[in-house]
Amino acid sequence: xxxPLILIAGLLAxxxxxxxxxVALGDSWSADVTLTNVSTExxxxxxxxxxxxxPKQVARALGATTFRDATCSGATTEEMTRPxxxxxxxxxxxxxxxxxxxxxxxxxxxxTLGIGGNDxxxxxxxxxxxxxxxxxxxxxxVVLPAPLGAxxxxxxxxxxxxAMSRNIRRTGPKVAATVRAIRARAPHARILLVDYxxxxxxxxxxxxxxxxxxxxxxxxxxxxxxxxxxxxxxxKAEKVTLVDTYSGSVGHDACQRPGVKWVEGVLPVTTDPxxxxxPLHPNRLGADHQARSVLATLANSDL
Length: 303
Fold this sequence. Notes:
This protein is α/β, with parallel strands linked by helices and about 300 residues long.
């Protein structure tokens, strides 16, 4: 895996830096949040930015003269223009992340943006789908409520339709407005819109390794695909480049064995790198894939 990354980096970096001022914007899947490898070089500890996240890997590979990483756990499109308090654990993981757009300048020539999941409330929905005993029933046809049995999908899909699908549709214009605002602040920047990895398998779940019903796992996987399709439409409409991290990550979801999975499951421990994990987020292997995807996208478009 390392050799292709070096070759791509060499193509982009020779004879001099192709991109001189790179700014990374986004949420926890761009920060590649961690509990043990937190970097505070660019953002407060409460953002949980990983020292190995894909923006930092991309910046090193490109040899960017100036690099600013604004990515932060829990960020939405609103945090592009307003400060974000991130006091998760006082004195350990806390602080205030400045408005992410504050890192942009008229000299910025490369921007990566990974956003939309929190606006659509997909991350919160995934956590609400966790079921400790998803098969427990009191009587035939009588299922205990989550987190002890009932699928969470019923909270979102009702006679009025799928509320998550509505959220995703409403998020599209917010992401589009964010792209236009980046262009206004950094008119010469190449803008890359980065999508989300395949966190769950295409069909079914893997209880007890990921504690949710097959029904909920299927629904969440469909909604993640729907979110990525929305991002693709926005990228096309706004004439920016989409970085497809999803396609290449299929088969590396949270249901796979350690060393194969690029997204962690519910259990808060990982082997990549070994230690505590943030559930339902990319691990180091996922961050490496994101970085390769960004660099390959740049290399292909610059040929």
